[in-house]
Amino acid sequence: MGFQQVTKADVSPNGTASAVARSGVRPGGGQSAARRALPHGRPLSVYAHTGVGAFQAATRGVPFLLYVPESAGRGVDVIDPQTGRLMGHYVTGLDPQHVVPSYDLTTLWSTNDLANTVTPFDPRTGRPKGPSVAVNDPYNMYFLPGGHLAMVVQEQLQQLGFFDARTMAAVSVLPVECPGIDHADFTADERVMVASCEFGHRLLRMDVATRTVTGYLDLPGSSPQDVRLSPDGRVFFVADKKLGGVHIIDAGSFRQVGFLLTGADAHGIYPSRDGRRMYVSNRGNGTISVIDPVRLAVVATWRLPGGGSPDMGGVSPDGRVLWLSGRYDAAVYAISTTDGHLLKRIDVPMKPHGMCVWPQPGRYSLGHTGNMR
Known about the structure:
Layout (H helix, E strand, L loop, with lengths): L2 E3 L4 E3 L18 H7 L27 E5 L5 E5 L6 E6 L4 E6 L6 E5 L4 E6 L4 E2 L4 E2 L5 E4 L5 E6 L4 E6 L5 E6 L5 E6 L5 E6 L4 E6 L4 E7 L5 E6 L5 E6 L4 E6 L5 E6 L4 E6 L6 E5 L4 E6 L4 E7 L6 E6 L5 E6 L4 E6 L5 E6 L8 E3 L15
Antiparallel strand pairs: 1-30, 2-26, 3-4, 3-31, 4-5, 6-7, 7-8, 8-9, 8-10, 11-12, 12-13, 13-14, 15-16, 16-17, 17-18, 19-20, 20-21, 21-22, 23-24, 24-25, 25-26, 27-28, 28-29, 29-30
C-alpha cells in the first residue's frame, strides 16, 4: 500500500461539441430536444438533502474512511483518506465488487460476488460487524423505497433478487431479459427503477410497487454502465462503455433524447454536493467529464497525469474531492472538484472496484456505492 502526493494534473477544458444525435434518436432530437425537456432554472430537488453538512443521526460522528473492494481478490481495504494509511484489510469472500451503504445508513455491505455472500461492516468502527451472509451471486445491491427490501443485482443469474434488508433472508426473484444487469437508479418519486444491461445493449424499466418489468429500451451497439437521475428528475444519465459517452433518457417516457460524448469506457456517474454538476469517470482514457445537467453539456474534461482508469467512488462529504478507484491501475485517486487536478494517488492492489466513500450526507441510501437522497 503506497501513497503519493501530487501537485497538479493536466487539466483541460473540453472545447468540442458535447452532444451528438445517434441512431435511435428521433429527428430533431439530440441536445436541443433534451434541453427543451429540461427548462432552465428548474429548482434542484432530487439531491437537495445531500448537501454539505446534511448528516443524519446515523452518520454524525462516523469516521471518514474509504472502503475499497479488491475485485480480483478476497477482501476490502479500509483506508484513511487524509493520510493514505491502510487502516485494515478484511477478508470478506472471493470477488468483492461493491461496498454498499444500507438504506438506514447503519451498515456497509460488501457484495462478494463469486463467494455468494455479503459481509456487513460497521461504519463507526470501520470493521466487519458480523459473519458473512449467504446471498447468491451478489454483484451489486440497491434498496427499494422505504428500506424494507434489498434488491440484489444477480448479474450471472440474470435476475433481481429481493431480500429482507435487515436479515438478508430471500423474499422473491424477478428473472429479466437483461444480460449483464449491472447498475440502476430510481425516478424522483421512486416509483420506477431503470437498470442497465451491460451485455444486452439495452435498459430495463421496473415498477417498484409490483416489482415487475414494464419495458425495455434497446440502445444498439451500446454497453450501458452506471445510471443516475438528473438533479431535477427529468432525465436519467446512462454511461456507455462501448460508445464512450452518456445516453440521456427521458425519465417519464423512457425514451432516448440525446447523447453526450465524454470518453472511452465511460463508467461511473456522480452528482456534485450542490447538485449542479455530474462527474463521469472515463475508465478507458484516464479522464473525468464534468456535465452541466441543466444545459446537458460537457463543460470540462479533467485528465489524470500519466493516464489511469478512474472507475467508481463518490464525492467527499465537504464536496471538495472526487474519490475514484483506478480498477486497472491498482490505485485510488483523489481529484479536486475545483479544477480537476490530482490531489493524491493511493496504491491499492487487486483491481479496486466499487469503492464506498463514507459517511455521506443524505437522508437514506438507495444503494450502489452511495446513491443518496
